[in-house]
C-alpha cells in the first residue's frame, strides 16, 4: 500500500464511479482498476461493490476511507510543516477554533500579522473544545483557541481573554443579578459550565432550574431569544449574538478564559512561534 493507492481509492470513493475518477486523475480506467484490485488484495478485504452505474463502498471500504483520508491529511500536514521549518515565514497554520472564541479570533493583531506575511494562510478547523483537543492529539492542528476548563496535561497554553459570564433575556431583568435573584428564573446554559453553576448555587443553599442545556453558547442565546429562559453565556458571545437584554452578574466565580494551546511535544515552527508571541 502506498500514498498513490490511497489517493486513488479516496477519489474513487468520492466520485462513486471509476470512469469519472480516472478522468479526475488523468489516468486510464484499466490502470486505475488494477491499482484498486491490488489494494483490495493487499488489505485482504473487499472495499467496493461494483454496480452497473458505479461503485458502492462496503462496510470495510467505509472504514478504510476514514483511515485513508486521515493518512493523506497527515502526510499533507507533515509536508507543509517541514516546508514551514525550512522557509520560516510562509506556509499554512492549521488553527483550531471553538465557537465561543469570537472575542479573540480573528483579532486585529492577527489580521495585521497576516497582512505583513503574504505567504501565510490559515486552515481553520471549528469544533467544540473536546473535538479540538482530539484534533490536536491526532496532529491535525498546529495551534488552537479553546475555552476553559480543559485537561492541560499534554498542553502548553497562554491565556488570551478572561471574561465574566452575563445573563441574557428577552424579558425584564434587574441590574447586577446575584445568585438569589437568578435562582428564581429558568436558566438556559452552555453545558460546559453546568458543574460550575450547580456548585455555586449549592454552596449558597440554592437549587437552580436549568430549563435548557446545550453544547454551544450561541444555541443557549437562541433559546433564550424565544423567551424560554435566561441564558448564561460569556460576555463576548452576548455582545456578538444577543438580541435581548444583557445584564452583569455579581458572581465572582463565574469567569471563563479563552486560551491559545499547543502540544508540549510539538515541533514549533518559526511561523508558529511568531503567532504564539503575538498572543503572549
Structure summary:
The chain has helices at residues 3-15, 18-25, 29-43, 59-87, 108-115, 129-137, 179-182, 194-203, 217-225, 235-241, 270-279; strands at residues 48-51, 54-57, 91-97, 120-126, 143-147, 155-169, 186-190, 209-214, 230-234, 245-248, 255-263. The protein has 280 residues and is α/β, with parallel strands linked by helices.
Q: What does the model show?
A:
The protein is an alpha/beta fold. It has 3 domains: 3-72, Winged helix-like DNA-binding domain superfamily/Winged helix DNA-binding domain (Arc Repressor Mutant, subunit A); 88-161 and 258-279, D-Maltodextrin-Binding Protein, domain 2, CATH 3.40.190; 162-255, 3-Layer(aba) Sandwich (D-Maltodextrin-Binding Protein, domain 2), CATH 3.40.190. 44% of the residues lie in helices and 25% in strands. Strands 3, 4, 5, 6, 7, 8, 9, 10 and 11 form a 9-stranded mixed beta sheet that branches. A two-stranded antiparallel sheet has the order 1-2. Helix 8 (194-203) links the parallel strand 7 (186-190) and strand 8 (209-214). The mean pLDDT is 89.
Secondary-structure blueprint of this entry?
Elements: H1 3-15, H2 18-25, H3 29-43, E1 48-51, E2 54-57, H4 59-87, E3 91-97, H5 108-115, E4 120-126, H6 129-137, E5 143-147, E6 155-169, H7 179-182, E7 186-190, H8 194-203, E8 209-214, H9 217-225, E9 230-234, H10 235-241, E10 245-248, E11 255-263, H11 270-279
Parallel strand pairs: 3-4, 3-5, 7-8, 7-9
Antiparallel strand pairs: 1-2, 5-11, 6-9, 6-10, 6-11
Helix pairs in contact: 1-2, 1-3, 1-4
